[in-house]
Amino acid sequence: MGATLPVSSTGMEHAAGIDFGVIEVVGVIGIVVIVLVAAFSRRLGIAAPIFLVVIGVGISYAPGVPELEVPHEFVLDVLLPPILYAAAIRLSFVDFRRNLGTIVSLSVVLVVVTAFGTGFVLFDSLDRLDLAAGIALGAVLSPPDAVAATAVGRRLGLPPRLLVVLEGEGLVNDATALVLFGSAVALVGAKAEVNLLLTAEQFAFAVVTAVVIGLIVGVVTVAVRSRLDDSVLATAISITVPFLAFAPTNAIGASGVLAVVVAGLYTGYANPGSVSVLTRTSDRINWSTIQFLLENAVFLLIGLQIRSLVEDVDANSSELSLTSTIALGLLATVILIALRFLWVGPLVLLLKLREQHAEARTLRSLQFLQARLREPAAGFRRKRISALRRRYTRQRADLEQLRSQSIDWRGGVVLGWSGMRGVVTLAAAQSLPDVPYRSQLILIAFVVAVVTLLLQGGTLPALIRALRISGIDEEEDQQQLAALLDELSFTGLAVLDDPSGVVDSTTDVDPEVIERVRQASYLRAEAAWERSHSGHLPLEATPHRLFRRLRLAVVEAEREHLLELRRQGLYPARIEDRAQALLDLEEARLRPARSDH
């Protein structure tokens, strides 16, 4: 079933002996397994990553199956960037901004606390392990992988805000963990004590540089893709974006992972108003497929490598026995779960205080705006009032979302139990330098990953059902979607008041054509409301062409208004996404093919 691939720098010496034919067969079989597991897991109600880990362990111990070892560089440099980018472009930037404090608390502060706490325990438990190596392994163990949690959460209908927090945490915590891991590894074997100030400086450099490079890559690639009228070329550039952000940032010692996340967030935010509808549709399909295959492949790899890790520990049992290693892995798991719950409890209380603070801040903004409205408005003052009005509108929308999607103690329990480890734990553990207990430390990391996936991931659905958490109300969503379409239609149909701005002013537009365009907009909103309750003319002047051009102008006006509403955050992101999908579908139908120009 497998082939032996190098896991260290010395392994590259044997790379020439790899049977690439076997690797191709492994890849094909792996894709088939992933697709079959995904199909059956949906029917059984269990997250696919859990199944894949179990299947991988079973395959690794099957008779005649050779060891499968994957270079950690391949996982960190090849698999991780597109996985994070695919998740980032799908995450609402507005929702990410609204929950930034919670996300930073979990993905930065908690990761650091967990890394040092677990590292000190391992340092105290293993005589020949220095503190820097212990913190390095703590950094490996600290970042949860949100894939399994969000897969379960979406299927069972977790509240959208909880899903956003989990997804945002999963995007940012990898960057924190890898930066901390790199700083700790640099101190392994050094006689000096761990320099927290130096580590903080390195972290700040890694973060600031990554944000700048990620933004530059995002802005430049979106600008280039917006000027391409060929969706194939635009998609080809899209596939390179995560690597364009990751490679140079990583090369200068900053966080390539964070650069990828920033580029993805910006791209997802800018795409609807920049690239063509065909490019957006192609991106949506292609990146969903890439994310599905790569995420699940990583979990299959976790299971497949267990056998080789166990054998390595057996071969070095003089340092630490297999039983003791597994026991330390279980101890680390308990510590990680306990630290997360100890952190999430006060965090939920702080979120309640944040809602009160947001309410007071919004009231102050309203009072300040009302005071300015009573003053004469002209020139710069008018622009200032307009900016104040936009800020108040955004703050009020944020407050309404916080109130409607408040995280209570039940959400806190789910958040605390959603601490499964995954891809970074898998890859970073294998990149540990040559330190005492290296084989045992790697196995400890894998024990934590497997146990948290099986224990927490396997019981999370039952926990959500037991807590009776109410998720998305589909009927309410349909009503909000219909209301949003009504608002978009009202703005879009204003284009028809003066059709001369769309078609040649010399063209006589039949009133019936305008009425057809108008009715097409009404029908779309009416359908949404129903679901919530249950020849001689020139070519360009033909009724069909005029209708299409007028209707396309309406759709474009609606899309511009939707982008403004998205910036203000007046509707939930999932509702805006559904409206965007409807507009994209209609725009794709209205856009003429190249031969039709």
From TrEMBL:
Where exactly are the transmembrane stretches of this chain? 20-39, 44-62, 74-93, 100-123, 202-223, 287-306, 326-351, 441-464
- Keywords assigned: Cell membrane, Ion transport, Membrane, Sodium, Sodium transport, Transmembrane, Transmembrane helix, Transport
Which parts of the sequence belong to the Cation/H+ exchanger transmembrane domain?
32-464
How would you describe this protein's topology in the membrane?
Multi-pass membrane protein
Compartments (UniProt record) = Cell membrane
Q: Which InterPro entries match?
A: Cation/H_exchanger_CPA1 (IPR018422), Cation/H_exchanger_TM (IPR006153)
User: Main localization of the protein?
Assistant: membrane
Pfam families, A to Z: Na_H_Exchanger (PF00999)
Say which domain of life the source belongs to: Bacteria
Task: Report the protein name in the record.
Answer: Sodium:proton antiporter
